[in-house]
Amino acid sequence: MKAQSRTVSAPKWAHLDLTQVPHVKTALPGPKSNELHARCTRYFKGLSSQVKLFPVAFEKGFGCELVDVDGNRYIDFSSGIYVTTLGHCHPKVTEAVQKAAGTLMNCHDFTTELKTRLVEKLAEILPGDLNGFQFYDAGTAAVEAGQRVLRAATGKHEMISCFYDFHGKTYGGVSLGHIRSLAYGPCRAPGMYMVPRPDTYRPLFAKADGTPDTDKFIAFYDEFIDKATIGAVAGFVLEPIQGWGGTIMPPDDFFPKLRKYCDEKGILLMTDEVLTSFGRTGKWLCTEHWDVVPDVVSLGKGFGNGFPVTCVAVREKHKESFESISASSSYGGNPMACAAALASIEAIEEEQLLERSAHLGELALKRMQQMKADHPIVGDVRAKGCLMGIELVKDKTSKTPFDEAGKMVYQRAFAKGLAWIPAGHILRMSPPIVMEDDVLLKGIDIIDEAIGETEKELL
Fold first, then answer.
1. CA distances for 275 relative to 3, 102, 286, 299, 364, angstroms
2. Are residues 360 and 339 in the same domain?
3. Alpha-carbon span 136 to 78, nearest angstrom
4. Whether residues 38 and 145 fall in one domain
5. Rounded Cα gap, residues 448 and 458, in angstroms
6. Nearest to 193 by CA among 229, 226, 140
7. Which helix H or strand E contains 158, and what residues bound it?
8. How far is CA 16 from each of CA 61, 94, 134, 362, rounded to the nearest angstrom?
9. Which residues contact 172 (CB under 8 A, 6 or more apart)?
10. Is there a domain that residue 340 lies in?
11. What is the tens place of the pLDDT at every residue in 399-420?
């Protein structure tokens, strides 16, 4: 389904002066960044690849700008890795959290007015009959709670996920994802299985024209469940668009066909929208692009625009399952979290940011398609709203991943004042959905320049 959008101006509060940003006044990372990073990492370990490749120390941010401790100013193309969807320190969200923090910080799972208003608002904006909710403080906690709902609602225990999915770093989340480490245990949790899913650029099952053959994927799932499971599949759990895997987009017919298949087989459909919800792709839920309503959905990241708040939402007929899974948590639904989430939703509505996100995605895709034509190492480009990716390959025929180029482009663009996300040979972008057109295009121009420099060095 082609997304329909109309041009909506970026909110005035988020204006960024491109004569002032990006502004690089030291070698990057700067001396203060290096000194602070060295002090911190004497004790703080387990850093992401983002930081290891470019160990800058940030001091502040506002809107679509980040400033490091040396005073260097960056365009933000990361949103705190998909989190500050509405930009840093959105005035409405900041005010709401400050007010809540000065009134009541935590009262476990007792009812508050903020929580009541939030669940009423969620029931109003989410599609279909998604009207049962429980709140948590991390995406992986919401994913695991969703798994418990699947088991309670069906009386079954097995689950199917997809290659390259990411569902968090607890044992239950890792058992449904691509992370492989003995630190998480010698095996996946019993009854957890992974299957391939359609990738529009690298389809495992393809038609004669090279496009994914979705029917063959569904047929494979049916055969796999029949032969590899014990016939007790409670749910199919997957990301609508794979984030950690590299902004991998499904073909438009995949989710409608998967929804139909799950209904026919008595399997519940759970989507992990921690990354893709609340405007990131131009909709409240990404599955709305395909007119699909999941049975269970995990929400997070942009839900509170940086405040740690996540949610499990379930359809009407399954919401009583929360009663049997010990659903409450110490921090879930605390007043500060509810204030952040409610203010974020209200800001999206008031500033028409779903439309803004969709517009930015169309603008970015058009510009990136020109890059694909201009650069021999750009194999594929994709965007849905402000969820974007560029796939680098050694040549366009073999599509061999070009990891060395991905690392170099990431570092070179960061050194020019673009804060963003690496993923091996796939460059990931998640700019705030309040970004102005010229700022978005400036950021992509920086990437374009970095790709050109990398080609000169590596080809």
1. 19, 29, 10, 8, 19
2. no
3. 23
4. no
5. 15
6. 229
7. strand 158-162
8. 12, 19, 37, 21
9. 140, 143, 144, 147, 189
10. yes
11. 999 999 999 999 999 999 999 9
